[in-house]
Amino acid sequence: MRIHDTMSGRDIRLDHDKIGIYLCGVTTYDDTHIGHARTIIVFDVLRRYLEEMGRQVNLVQNFTDIDDKIIQRADAEGRDALELSHSYIERYHQDFDRLNVKRATSYPQATTHMQEIIDIISELVKSGHAYVVDSGVYYSVESFYEYGALSKKNIRELRSGIRIDPEQDKHDKVDFALWKRTDTKPNWDSPWGSGRPGWHIECSAMSLKHLGRTFDIHGGGRDLIFPHHENEIAQSRACTGLPLARVWMHVGMVTISGQKMSKSLGNIKTTRSILDRWGPNALRLFCLSGHYQKPIDYTQELLVESLDLWRRLESCHYILEQMADTHDTIVHDEFDAALSSNFNTHEAIKIMGDTVREVGEMASAGSLYTDNANILYGRIARMISIFGLHISRPENTEQIQHDIAQREKYRRSGKYKQADIIRERLHAKNIELLDYKDGTVWVYHEIMPHNIRH
């Protein structure tokens, strides 16, 4: 499998049996939005695919649970900053459990890694890559000659772009904070006085502790390339002398009807609100419908397309499940080739859609038999599993089979009104009946939160 590396601009082969991934998580001062959801779903499916291929994945996803935004929100609401932060961590888990995202191997939090943060800052000060002033400790960007390698930014151009610098005691306008002195709670003791860590140093400390000095993939949204990931590289490499990650993998932004999401425009789409409207499966398919490196536009039309594909996929699954007599998963070579080639979920979804259409055509033509149903079921079941989709199940399948048998008796005896009553009764329970030459197949559809039906 190959993944595009933002640093080198090349597709890098992942050839280790054990894969370490660090995914920059959210700052927990508010609910997550669709942009967060897309990145997290992409990495969830990447993990599922690697594990399906027999790899052992250690996925570390942090929470930034102390930050100026958290403190400002807590002050505005009259709450304790850490209590507010941890309440949003809980809401995060509620939402992404609903989205069927597998829990990460670990979820480190900045506030539980203060000693590791202090140790790295101390090393950077000792080596001359950082310096102490009245307001705290800063990283000297000029001291790291490779600065800008990830973002392709030039230090001189960065300097010229900074017009107003509120941190007046820095040596250089481009330097960034490692430790901010403050007496305001929450704060922590350090060799440089009470204070809080800078955002970038938190991720360096957590990734180094949980994944070691060099690991396979460092991921996040494209908006994190600069300054966050650029600064992580500068800190970590100055401390260890080694590359932080073999691959830097970045997911494209989500726009809203062509516009960037922002509170000023009032167009923030929270993960929770979309789940409440469209359910988890349509949302997952939407987030995977475009190539992960490219931006994707959130529109009603694209969500309807994703829901339509999900409805057809549900039907396909139930048709094959009832016609097959073995239920083992089977590799689809073209599907795997798409995912192995820089994780092209757009192409993989197209291949899955083609398979769904093929099954529908074969069922309608009466050419779907046990042998080919076994193969097609194995392929579709594996695709559904890798994409993290969830097939809903009815409570009483025996009663459904009984009703279908009774309906068939009515149809054979010409009692079509009674047969239609049974169909309508099942439809009210989200059970669709599909009549084919060789018999009737039932499909149980996911109950949508707001009764969106297709």
Describe the structure.
With 454 residues, this protein is an alpha/beta fold. It has three domains: 2-251, HUPs (Rossmann fold); 301-386, Anticodon-binding domain of a subclass of class I aminoacyl-tRNA synthetases (Four Helix Bundle (Hemerythrin (Met), subunit A), Up-down Bundle); 397-444, no CATH class. Helices cover 47% and strands 15% of the residues. The protein has a four-stranded parallel sheet, sandwiched between helices. A four-stranded antiparallel sheet has the order 5-6-7-8. A hairpin with a 2-residue loop joins strand 14 and strand 15 (439-444). Helix 9 packs across helix 10 (300-323). The protein starts with a strand and ends in a 10-residue tail after the last strand.
Number of strands: 15
Count of spatially separate domains: 3
**β-sheet strand percentage:** 15-25%
> Shape from CA axes?
elongated
Strand order of the largest sheet: 4-3-9-10
Give the number of helices: 15
Q: Which range best describes the helical content: under 10%, 10-25%, 25-40%, 40-55%, 55-70% or over 70%? A: 40-55%
CATH homologous superfamily descriptor of the largest domain = HUPs
Quote the average pLDDT. 95
CATH class bucket of the largest domain: Alpha Beta
Structural class: alpha/beta
CATH topology of the largest domain: the name is Rossmann fold
Write the H/E string, N to C.
EEEHEHHHEEHEEHEHEEEHHEHHHHHHEE
| Rg (C-alpha, Å) | 26 Å
* Largest sheet geometry: 4 strands, parallel
How far apart lie the N and C ends? 37 Å
Q: Main traits of this protein?
A:
454 residues; alpha/beta; Rossmann fold; Four Helix Bundle (Hemerythrin (Met), subunit A); 3 domains; four-stranded parallel beta sheet; 15 helices; 47% helix; elongated
